Amino acid sequence: MSGGQVSLDRRPVLRGIDLTVKPGEVVAVLGANGSGKSTLIRALLGLTPLSGGSTLLYGAPPARFREWWRIGYVPQRLSVGGGVPTTIREVVASGRIARQRRLRPTSPADREATERALETVGMAHRAADPVQALSGGQQQRVLIARALAGEPDTFVMDEPTAGVDAQSQQLLADTLSTLVDQGKTVLLVAHELGPLEPLITRAVVLRDGFVCHDGPPPHAVGAHALPGHDHVHPHAEEKPASPLDWRPTS
Amino acid sequence: MIDLLQFDFMQRALIAALLVGLAAPAIGTFIVQRRLALLGDGIGHVALTGVALGFLTGTAPVLTAVAVSVLGAVAIELVHARGRTSGDVALALLFYGGIAGGVLLISLAPGGSNATLMSYLFGSISSVSTQDVWVIGLLAAAVLGMVAFFGRELYVLCQDEEVARASGLPVRFLSLLIAVTAALTVVIAMRVVGLLLVSALMVVPVATSQQFTRGFRSTMALSMLFGMISTVGGLTSSFYIEVPPGAIIVIVALAGFVLALGLGRFVRRSRPQESSP
Asked: Which residues are listed as membrane-spanning (chain B) (predicted)?
C-alpha cells in the first residue's frame, strides 16, 4: 500500500500509510483501540475502499486480483448472521471456496485439507457440532481452520487473540510457528501479542492513522515494553524517556 | 386423496404446490441467513403491480409478474447494498408502491376489480392453468438449479460478506442472484399461496427445521421437506374445507413450527455434549 487513506463516515481513519509486506514476513499491526489497525488490513485487501493512495495484492489492485486463493483472511469474529445452524466442518470446508470450481463436486483434496485444518486447531472431534454452540476461543479456532483449509500463501488475521482463552492463544502460536516454518507470510492485527511475540519479525504501530513505528518488534519485558504503552505515553513524540522503550531512537 | 386427483385443476394445483414447497425453503435458507426475511414480502407486493399490468395489457399475469418482481428485487438489492440504514425504509416504499400500483392498474384494466386480485393475494386452487404449471415448473427448475450451481458461493456470502469478498467471490453478482431467485420464487408461489403469504414459505419451514438440525445443508434439506408437507397438506385441506389455500398452507406451516419448538427442545436435551465445556 502506498499513501493509503481511508475515511469512514467522512472521518479520516488512515491518513497516508505506506506499507509493504514481503513474503515470509510475520508482521504484527499494533496500536490502541481506534487507531485504525483493522481498517488498515481491510483496506489492504480492498475490503474497505481507499479515499486516497493505492493498494496492491501481489502486484494487482484488488479489483483485478484473481489469485484470491493465495490469501487467507481471518475476520475478527465468526458472524452468526440470521442464525441458520451450520456445523464446524461446513464452515471450515468453505475455506476451500477460492480453490473450487462451480459444479465440481468436493474433491478428495478439499476433504483432506478440511480434515487437516480441523486437526491442526484441535476441533476434529467436534466437526459435526454447530458453530453456534462454541465459545469465543473455539470460534476463533474454527475461523483460523477455515483459512488453513484454503492453503493460502498469506494469512491476514484481524485480532486473532482478542477475547481468546490462554489455551487457544497458545494453540494459535503453535499453529503460526508451523506456518512460519513453511515460509508463509502472516499479517495480523493485535492489541496484545501474548504468546505470539517470539514469532513476530516486524511490528507496525499505528497511531491516529499514521505509522509511528515500523521495525523490529518489542523484545524488552515489563509494562513499558507492552505495545499498548506507547499510545498513552504523553511524550510519545519526544526521545524515549525510558531505556525500556522499544521505539527506535533515530 | 385419490378422489382429489380425479380433478384436473387439483392435479395442476398439487404439482404447483409441490414445486413451491421445494423451491421456497431452498432459497429461503439463504435469505434467512442473510437477514433478509422480509425480502420475499417486498417482492410479493411489487409483483402485485406486475399481475395488474398483465391484466391491463392482456398478457399472462405470470409473465408480467416475473418481469416486474425481478426488477423490484434488483431495486431492493441495490438499495440494500448502498446503505444499511435506509434499507428498511426503501423496502417499505416498495411495499406501498407495489400495492398501490397493483390496485390502480387493475382498476384501469377492462373488467378488472380488486376481486380479481384476491386470488393472487391469497392463492387459489381452481385457477392454476396448464400454462401456469409450465411456467412454475420452469421457474422452480431455475431456482433449484441456481441453488445447486452457486450453493457453495452463496453459503460463504451469507456467512460473511467480507470473507466472500476476500475469497474473490463476485459478491455483488451473488447478492443480485439471491434477490432475483427470490423474485422467481415469489412468482412460483403466487398462484398457490398468494403474494401476501409467499414469504412465509421461505421463512417458516427454515425456522422449523433449525429446531432439529446442526448443519446448514441439513437445515435446507429438512426445510424443503417441511415446505412440501405444508403446501401439499394445506392445499388438500383447502379442497375439503373451501378456504383460500394460502391461508391454510401458512397455518399448517406455523403449526409445524410450534410443534417443532417443543419437540426440538426435547431432541436437543437428549443429545450429549452439545454445549461448550
From this structure: 52-79, 91-113, 133-151, 163-182, 188-208, 220-241, 247-267
The Cα A43–Cα A41 span in angstroms is 5
Q: Is the separation of the CB atoms in B73 and B182 below 8 Å? A: yes
Query: Residue B84: what pLDDT?
Result: 55
pLDDT tens-place string over residues A166-219: 888 888 888 888 888 888 888 888 877 777 778 888 888 887 777 777 777 765
> Cβ distance B21 to B202 under 8 Å?
no
Pairing of strands A26-31, A154-158: unpaired
The number of helices, as runs of H, and strands, as runs of E, in chain B is: 11, 0
Q: Is A101 on the interface with B (CB under 8 A)?
A: no
Domains of chain A: 2-232 (3.40.50.300)
Q: How far is CA B93 from CA A85, A187, B97, B101, B180, in A?
A: 32, 44, 6, 12, 19
Contacts of B80 (CB under 8 A, 6+ apart): B36, B87, B90, B175
Strand partners, A155: A72, A186
Quick one: pLDDT at residue B272? 54
Ranges under pLDDT 50 in chain A: 220-250
Query: Is B216's CB within 8 Å of A90's CB?
Result: yes
Say how many CB pairs under 8 Å bridge A and B.
104
Whole-complex ipTM: 0.80
| pLDDT, tens digit (0-9, with 9 covering 90-100), for B126-136 | 778 888 888 88
| B238: three-class secondary structure by DSSP | helix
- SS3 assignment, position A203: strand
Q: Nearest by CB to B169, which of A42, A97, A129?
A: A97
Q: How far is B32 from chain A (nearest CA, A)?
A: 5
Report how far apart, in Å, the C-alpha atoms of A154 and of each of A55, A74, A135, A248, B176 are. 16, 11, 26, 28, 30
CB contact under 8 A, A134 and B276: yes
From chain B, the residues in CB contact with A94 under 8 A are 152, 155-156, 159
Domains and CATH numbers, chain B: 3-269 (1.10.3470.10)
Q: Are residues A130 and B214, on separate chains, in Cβ contact within 8 Å?
A: yes
Report how far apart, in Å, the C-alpha atoms of A38 and of each of A13, A16, B25, B41 are.
10, 15, 36, 36
Q: What is the pTM of this model?
A: 0.83
Count CB-CB contacts under 10 A for residue B104.
12
CA angle A26, A28, A33 (to 5 degrees): 165
